[in-house]
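Reviewers of the previous submission asked for a worked example of the structure-prediction workflow described in the proposal, so we include one complete record here. The input consisted solely of the amino acid sequence. No template or homolog information was supplied to the procedure at any stage.
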Amino acid sequence: MDEKKLNEVTIVNDHIFTYHGERVIKLQVPQIGPAQVISYDINALKYCLNYCGENKIPSPIFYILKYCIRPFFGELVKKAHKLGVCTYQPRQ
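From that input alone, the workflow returned the following structure tokens.
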């Protein structure tokens, strides 16, 4: 993605920019074919957990839309709940 081509973008650094006032983080994931999607989702959840923990975000809410990562993120959800994160997942 070349965020420089978008309107209303403010570049913070190589991995963070704001778009229409919202913070966007670009995560690096290995090029592993179809499994790249799962890797990205897990890394995104880990990033959010670390960010909320480090910045002491009170009562964050995560709405998890991906069904494909459910088998892989049980431990991450447990960690989220320990931090006080409320997680919502759509039913299958």
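The chain has two domains: 1-29, 31-92. We consider this example representative of the routine output the project will generate in years two and three.
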